[in-house]
Amino acid sequence: MSYFDAASAAPLHPVARQALLASLDEGWADPSRLYREGRRARMLLDAAREAAAEAVGCRADEVVFTASGTRAVHTGVAGALAGRRRAGRHLVVSAVEHSSVLHAGEAHAREGGTVTEVPVDRTGAVDPGAFGAALRDGTALACLQSANHEVGTEQPVARVAEVCRAAGVPLLVDAAQSLAWGPVDGEWSLLTGSAHKWGGPAGVGLLVVRKGVRFAVAGPADEREAGRAAGFENIPAIVAAVASLRAVRAEAAREAARLRELTDRLRARLPELVPDVEVVGDPVRRLPGIVTFSCLYVDGETLLHELDRAGFSVSSGSSCTSSTLTPSHVLRAMGVLSEGNVRVSLPFGAAEADVERFLEVLPGAVAGVRAKLGAPAPATVTEGDALVVDAVGKLCPVPVIELAKVIGDVPVGGTVRVLADDEAARLDIPAWCAMREQEYVGEEPAEKGTAYVVRRIR
Amino acid sequence: MSYFDAASAAPLHPVARQALLASLDEGWADPSRLYREGRRARMLLDAAREAAAEAVGCRADEVVFTASGTRAVHTGVAGALAGRRRAGRHLVVSAVEHSSVLHAGEAHAREGGTVTEVPVDRTGAVDPGAFGAALRDGTALACLQSANHEVGTEQPVARVAEVCRAAGVPLLVDAAQSLAWGPVDGEWSLLTGSAHKWGGPAGVGLLVVRKGVRFAVAGPADEREAGRAAGFENIPAIVAAVASLRAVRAEAAREAARLRELTDRLRARLPELVPDVEVVGDPVRRLPGIVTFSCLYVDGETLLHELDRAGFSVSSGSSCTSSTLTPSHVLRAMGVLSEGNVRVSLPFGAAEADVERFLEVLPGAVAGVRAKLGAPAPATVTEGDALVVDAVGKLCPVPVIELAKVIGDVPVGGTVRVLADDEAARLDIPAWCAMREQEYVGEEPAEKGTAYVVRRIR
Question: What residues of B are labeled active site?
Fold first, then answer.
């Protein structure tokens, strides 16, 4: 098996495993106790905090260990908002943040706060000027990821931090995807991370709150972790997490160069090997190990199954593979195709031979899925001078496949209406038009679902 | 070293260690993914949930794994209160619950809810009738521990559950201390536990919400654990936790009998070996491994240091050993002496020889601390017909030591006023009177601190 989903969870680093084993015997006691076992646990915890602070570039007393990266984000967002409640209740986030940030924003909105989502460009990056324009009197907090988890695009964090500082608004940086590669530049105020993304064990998140940042913990009091993370400290896992972070950092420069070469190769060769593929995300300002692409006329879930059978573990932002049945909010915010979406995220040490084998296997897998889906002839009728494709009740990517089948029957200058009720069509039909250089006219409510109108212009 | 603080955290069970190691390689991936590593992780998680449900005596889909026992309590209390918000905002808890329950209650009160604390008797147990009397229209939730964490007294959970059921109020049982020994009897509605109390790793709590119990999760949405525990599942630790629970359950009957014999021995011999000691908690209806006692005229922190030097790791509910500077709320609610308090909680497998050695070492340790503290002659004056001991500015146990020194100078029927400003005196002076069969008259505000009035009656 080739595991290419490191952005979701990385396998345990050998150093983390060793550290975990060693500290299971030394770090199980309550570090707040005064007896020998407690003092030993406290020493391990203190040393881990020092080492984490050094890796992040902050003071040890600014580091809080949480039970997960999600918990770090939830606590960080809620605590910073509560601490700045007098300043106002407005939250600014990018449109492509991790769901933990967006869900924290939704919870804030349910409690009467307001949230502004800053849009991104087609590569997935925010514009610092646009981000700054979203800040206003009453903005309590801004959140920006260091790099995107689905497409790998790096955000201009240092410049956004400057803009926030000038406006007097604290910036929380979700650094879950980038912390393995290095500290986050710039004058951020809060930072979050997740150990299982860098080869540490599950069960450890990192929340850094800079001295001077107003912060108020919500919920029941608890004396652990300076009152910022309730519950008995998971010291063996914390020790393993920090050991792993130090280990990956020691290899980071060399490994980043190696993985970047592999992902450059994927970015260059995928469009040569697979017809109708769109590689998304910034080609240069991106994480070393992530490549994301979408394949027209492909059902993401079926493609993932084919790749799994061929020995490749990858993930997808297509609607069909998630329990929510809506396509990835990241791809939607970028305005790129979501159908047949695949994210390849290479773990530390990913073998070149496995990447080459992926390039060998993928074209056949995509062609196979397309062949399976391509059979039914589209149901078309003509209404006045417009051709109508009825794809109501059909899931992505069928509406786009049927559109592609009939576009040749439309006279140049004429239009076709695609009736669809799958939410993904709203994203994929305009994306298809962009790829095919046809005109996307817009959408209209229809008797069944929505009518997406496309004009043939070539 | 003899580690006698299992009620705080138990060392990792060998079975937990094995299970953790095995599942580090199998359980690190995201269980919501469809590829091989994800499916393998999902299978481990599902199997662990089934096994946990069997051990608790519930359905697998009623089990939620949280990041700690504290988190299970916080989520359980908040979720049950929110789910029953229409019924009312009144919460009933026993006065001797774990701090996580009481802190959840304080958080509820800060948000406008009301909380009733049901008192306990001198053994630390609630009376089911009194518990029932605290329920009223508008009671949303009641909480009762299965057994007390400081003194080991078992609560009448099954009878309280009946009372709650009759009143239509869900009962949350904090079973952290008892789950190793067996399931909780009775028709409870919610249950919480903590793996590191039963030899599992840190980082795993258990929250059980019975089908039909109204429950509404507060805070940001997250799809993990049926939306009830945000954050990436810590599967290796969950597998290890459940393996450990099954292993200790398999040994529970035999080990309970063995530990009960050892703690019976401690309960019987401590008062013979150490003068002026009060063994607290129910002598019969109690956990097998916990014995708690308080020593007059002893400073708990100094005694813990002496015992640590002699190789014993125990904890204390005395004010002097905690960061809060107030004596244990449990001892206070029971109305027993808190000074020189020691909790011995034997882990699974505790050696008889170590218990015997503790009985050898303790009398000398207590005598040594008393000798250190006993030196200063009390400063007394006579005001009218009352002797006054000025212990203002002196910490527990000095006020009681000075009282004991002068009581012989008071004529029978006469009174002595002890001026003190250490909060522990409020508990310890009445407790001393009960032990010494003297009359505690009451307290009065004084110019400096509080005056505690004692009448000599023998």
Answer: 320
